Amino acid sequence: MVVVVAGPTSTPLDASGDSGAESGRWGRGAAPSAGAGTVALDAVGVAPAAETGEQAGRRTSRAPVDGVAPAAAGDAQDGVRVVESSGDEAVASLVHRMDVLSAVTELLLDEPVFNETVAVRRCARLLATELAEWVFIDLVPQRQPDGTGQAAAVRNGDATPRRQVVMGPEEEWAEDAARGLAAADPAPGMLPWTVFETGHSALRPHAEELDLLGSCPDGRPVLSTIGATSVLCVPVTDGDRPIGVITLAGRGEHGPFSLLDLSVCQRIGRYLGMVIRASRMYRRSAAVAESLQASLLPRRLPEIEGLELAARYTSATDGTEVGGDFYDAFPAKEGWGLVLGDVVGKGEDAATVTATARHAVRLVSRWKTDPREVLATVNETLLTEDRFVTAVFAGIVRRGEGVRVTLGIAGHPPAIVVRGDGVILTASRGGVPLGLFEDFDPGTDTLDLAPGDTLLLHSDGVLEACDAARLQFGQARLLETLAAHAGGSVDDMLGAVERSLLDFCDGDLRDDVSMLAMRVLPPSLN
């Protein structure tokens, strides 16, 4: 439903019907006058057939088509040219509207991951450039994960719109006015509030009520402050209900808004609403995934005398699903245990298997010391699951000033040792993933670490990260980065690997990345 309220025209019709109607806005064409106190618009906003060539010709863009001014009425030959010119202008006006609609669609869908703030500002900027001097966008704030809502939502009520963006002319006075208007949320009695409550668009070609958009902090009506004489307002809908309002205000320099302007803005309101809905669903999914992922990882690593521990976890760029990476450090029957693994797939099912694998390793390590026996028992536990798991388990036992590391490998990338003198060694690989076969045979290796040596466990996401040319980060780049930062702390070393990885793939991680490192401290630092 469209509500059209019109005030008196600036120039009443004379006896011959020559109205002197105002020219169109930005090549879009304004509504022609039909008589004092009314504005007549047909269903598509096109001038009625009864209007004269001169009346149609005056609904022009900033510059007349082909630079030709409308001819005077009464000249038959010139009248033909006026009709032809007005026809060209009508086509140009329609094309301009379609261009605006197409441009908005491209802007809103340009981001691979929907961003509500970016979408709203882009939409407002384009509308302020193409359709109006002033643009106001008001939206209902999204609920926070705890269900409390933003502060403004608490202030206004649970489902009332709050001002998000105000854009006006690029002039100093307008920028000052915009800052003041940005804090003026819609209130009952204002046109944006009414449109939001009813879900019906409103068009005021000639706005006579100065308090239509409320008042500024100094008490002056908004319309007076910005000098607007024409207003249209459309709801922003997410497909089910209004979630906000777009308001356009013009100063009348290029004619009042027409029904075609309203039609274009109605579509833009629907498009913007769908993008906002997608953005909020994405953020909710990402928040749930992040929360669930955090529950699958230790809140903090334990402090172990004589050892320095550090870990890094980076989720894939499209982090709307829970990843399958996990790591842990825990006391074992003899000494300590480290584990890092990766469950195939993502989502809630993968999270269930991740939790099972991680806690099973912790539990079994309490009463078994051999990593082969630990992994074999975990394998039995995972045989009933629909997903398999690659993992590496390290049993840590003190040996003098150093430690002995006994590795059990289940189809996982091999552990890496960075010696204190910068020499890098790669442990054995082998074994089959957990949860595939009853006849399980893990790979094994034993390493002796001296003070200053570092053990690194990592997921395959480190090696398989790709750049734009689909070239993988690979083992060689990983070893080079580790060697270049071997003199720093363990946390600095992992941070360097993380930065190098993100730079290599330009921030576009296709898989989760996890790393767990342990360094043997010199006796003086124990």
TrEMBL record:
Domain PPM-type phosphatase, chain residue ranges per copy: 304-520
Keywords recorded for this protein, A-Z: Hydrolase
Biased composition (Low complexity): 63-76
GO MF annotation, one: phosphatase activity
UniProt region (Disordered), positions on chain: 1-33, 50-77
InterPro entries documented for this protein: Bact_Sigma-Reg, GAF, GAF-like_dom_sf, PPM-type-like_dom_sf, PPM-type_phosphatase-like_dom
Pfam families: GAF_2 (PF13185), SpoIIE (PF07228)
Protein name (database record): GAF domain-containing protein
Domain GAF: 115-286
